[in-house]
Write a structure and sequence with these properties.
Elements: H1 2-12, H2 29-37, E1 40-44, E2 47-54, H3 57-67, H4 72-92, E3 99-103, H5 108-114, H6 118-128, E4 138-139, E5 146-148, H7 160-167, E6 171-173, H8 175-183, E7 187-195, H9 199-210, E8 214-223, H10 225-228
Parallel strand pairs: 2-8, 3-4, 3-7, 7-8
Antiparallel strand pairs: 1-2, 5-6
Helix pairs in contact: 2-4, 3-4
Bound molecules: zinc ion.
Zinc ion binds at residues 17, 19-20, 22, 28, 30-31.
């Protein structure tokens, strides 16, 4: 029984660092330090965006484990990153009280495969978890505000330009929720796991701006070195 429980625990909380394979911890002290202290802010569609850590193969592995395998330790990592990104964003951008934390939607096919929208679910973890400063300032909506159109092509195998065209009008807004947010002058902070070309985020911002909703910026767990201006 003991061995069985240990095996289950190892499945949920791996006994090695997800980033560097150091034993006995799902995220070692030095990798945790990197997630907490590497944030940078940049601009996308004239909006302030902050990301916690540059995207590389090791970070990609964590993002995949979080969204495809629903691995708790990987999701914790994404939450640490989103919090670090938020701490950076408040240095450069005022966040009004009761700002709504809106996750970037995945494709409907991906949501079906994963049994739910993983970023939307994570957005609900953040305000609940009082160990993060982000929780005091933000609330998550009861229902998703943003959706991805079903005719969006799979991004893999597309050139940067094709990705941009593919995603340009890929995101749409639930009009009923949008009307309420507009009437109550609610501000929105966007959150994503990865920002590479920025095309998805641009599409989300333009859909929200078209619905006359104020977007105060975005946070992401990771972004390409190019976006973060890391040589
Ligand atoms: Zn490590």
């Amino acid at each position: 029984m003991r061995m069985f429980l240990d095996a289950i625990r190892t499945l949920i909380y791996p006994s090695y660092c997800l980033m560097c394979n150091q034993p006995n911890t799902p995220l070692c002290t030095s990798c945790r330090y990197k997630w907490q202290n590497s944030s940078r802010d940049f601009l996308i569609s004239n909006h302030k965006v902050s990301a916690a850590i540059p995207y590389d193969d090791r970070v990609a592995r964590i993002v995949l484990s979080a969204k495809e395998d629903n691995l708790e330790a990987a999701k914790d990592c994404i939450l640490i990153g989103l919090n670090a990104a938020f701490r950076q964003l408040v240095r450069v951008q005022d966040i009004p009280d009761a700002t709504l934390l809106i996750s970037i939607p995945s494709s409907q096919a991906a949501n079906r495969r994963r049994g739910g929208d993983y970023l939307f679910n994570l957005s609900h973890q953040i305000p609940k978890n009082s160990k993060y400063p982000i929780s005091k300032l933000l609330t998550a909506p009861k229902a998703p505000l943003l959706f991805q159109k079903s005719n969006v092509r799979d991004q893999s195998g597309l050139t940067a330009r094709e990705r941009m065209q593919n995603m340009e009008s890929a995101i749409y807004v639930n009009p009923r929720i949008a009307a309420k947010l507009k009437d109550s002058h609610t501000t929105v902070l966007l959150m994503d796991d990865v920002i590479t070309s920025g095309a998805t985020l641009k599409s989300a911002i333009s859909a929200l701006v078209a619905s006359k909703i104020t977007v105060i910026g975005a946070i992401a767990a990771c972004a390409s070195r190019h976006q973060m201006r890391i040589p």
